Amino acid sequence: MPVASCVQDYTLIRSLPKLQVVLKWTVRHHGFLSLCCYLGGFVGFVVTLQKGKYLEQFAQLAWTNTILLYTLVPSSFLVSLIFQQGILWLVFPACLVIVNDVAAYFFGFFFGRTPLIKISPKKTWEGWVGGLIGTILVALILSSKVQTIQWLACPRRDLTIFSWVTCDTHDMYQNHTYALSDFLHPSLWENPAATGLRTILQDRAPGCLAWLEGLCRVTFSLTPFQLHSVVLAFFAAAIAPFGGFFASGFKRALNVKDFGDSIPGHGGMTDRMDCQLVMGVFSYVYLHHFMLGHTQGVEDLFERFVMLDHGEQLEVFEKVKGYLIQQGQTVIAAR
């Protein structure tokens, strides 16, 4: 029995490099493989078309593509956020949606008088405004707390939630000193209307002008993440709820009350995620366009380098070495 076990272990060890190559190739070309699977289903759909059932079958195809668009595409953005910037970018936007839902409910319950949208008659303008204000205030407070937790703020290397991760603190989570004038475009001070207003205030109310200029010079310390959390909160309160309205219209079109019953009294998991899907896509796009720009971190570049074939890795190495030598740097290569 021990001999058989050793042989089995030896066979497994020998097969690991081959398995690693297969998995590496699969991860590198997962987009192409996904497309092939989709095209396979598309071809299967075409060859199984039956006379007299065309409309029904194309309706089923439309439903399938709608489900893929509404669930899998946003989910891919959420997974990308976890691997690139940490679980924080999944948890924090989701919390903002929940906070907005609660704040809008209470403001609407106590002050709601004006209907907001016909498809959801219980939603009111008072609840919408109250939810917006409450979400922004909570975002400023909550963002200052969660940004200090490395388990949330560090990019993940896997989806094992129980493993602790550490990383260098990203610049977006470090305090910066700002003044109100930093958020005002220079053209606001240079246009004729602003110049005329300053002249009038200088002649008639110099004290008011001095107060305004002093207000613009007041400084405060915040992290860029806290500032951007206001934008995320505004989206969570102003736009993300329309994901819920969309789902409400969808249910009315199907003449169903809830999408499921996994959460009794709340319409199942799908009903809880209708706003989160919209929020996740916005968080991903906003992060890459306005917070990270087009820069690539060293870790991200190294991960891409590891995914290359051995020959491509050597080619990149030679190009980097040639560039460093051209810049006058000393390069020592060990072979």
Number of helices: 14
Query: What value does the Rg take, in angstroms?
Result: 28 Å
SS-based structural class?
mainly alpha
Mind describing the biggest β-sheet?
2 strands, antiparallel
What percent of residues are in strands?
under 5%
Domain count, please report it: 3
Describe this structure in words.
The protein is mainly alpha-helical. It has three domains: 85-174 and 224-295, no CATH class; 176-222, no CATH class; 296-335. 70% of the residues lie in helices and 5% in strands. It has a two-stranded antiparallel ribbon with strand order 1-2. Helix 5 packs antiparallel against helix 10 (224-238).
Task: Summarize this structure briefly.
This protein is mainly alpha-helical. Helix content is 70%, strand content 5%.
